[in-house]
Specification:
- This protein is of the alpha+beta class and 140 residues long.
- Helices cover 30% and strands 20% of the residues.
- It contains four helices and six strands.
- The strands form two sheets. The chain has a three-stranded antiparallel β-sheet with strand order 1-3-2. A three-stranded mixed β-sheet has the order 5-4-6, with no helix packed on it.
- The chain starts with a helix and ends in a 6-residue tail after the last strand.
- The site of one zinc ion has 7 residues, from loops.
Length: 140
């Protein structure tokens, strides 16, 4: 368990009300370097909180710039902690994600930006997700 006071400070910094479930979910993200699916969080948190409460927590974390969605090849939506700089309704997570074929985890590669795309002029750009695959540094 990370320092609860530190976790609460992060919540306050993102204008998220401090509750037990929010501190617990944030702690789970802080302890891991890879993206987590709802089911994994539910499993890690145990029986203390139901799935709807966890779902709402993830939703508010995403809205407040604490976590962002990670689309990988696992078939379930995952979330990862944002680096400092994301705020309420204002994400800057323009990095690629890396999915490891050995451990199955998906990591944020914050230092690798998504290269600019040249779309045909009749298409309006909104967002792009880029997933690289291979073997992560822990599995090599
Ligand atoms: Zn973000
Ligand atoms: Zn790996
Ligand atoms: Zn990411």
């Amino acid at each position: 368990m990370s320092n609860t006071h530190h976790l609460e400070q992060i919540l306050v910094g993102h204008h998220v009300r401090r509750t037990k479930v929010r501190v617990a979910v944030l702690d789970i993200f802080m302890q891991r370097s890879y993206a987590l699916a709802h089911a994994e969080i539910e499993h890690l948190i145990g029986k203390a909180f139901d799935r709807v409460t966890i779902y709402r927590t993830l939703k508010s974390f995403e809205e407040q710039g604490l976590i962002h969605r990670v689309i990988d090849d696992s078939g379930s939506m995952k979330y990862a902690l944002c680096q400092a700089g994301c705020a309420e309704h204002n994400h800057h997570d323009q990095h690629i994600h890396f999915s490891c074929v050995k451990c199955g985890h998906t990591f944020c590669l914050d230092s690798v930006p998504i290269p600019p795309l040249q779309l045909p002029p009749e298409y309006e750009f909104q967002k792009v997700d880029l997933l690289a695959q291979g073997i992560c540094k822990n599995c090599r």
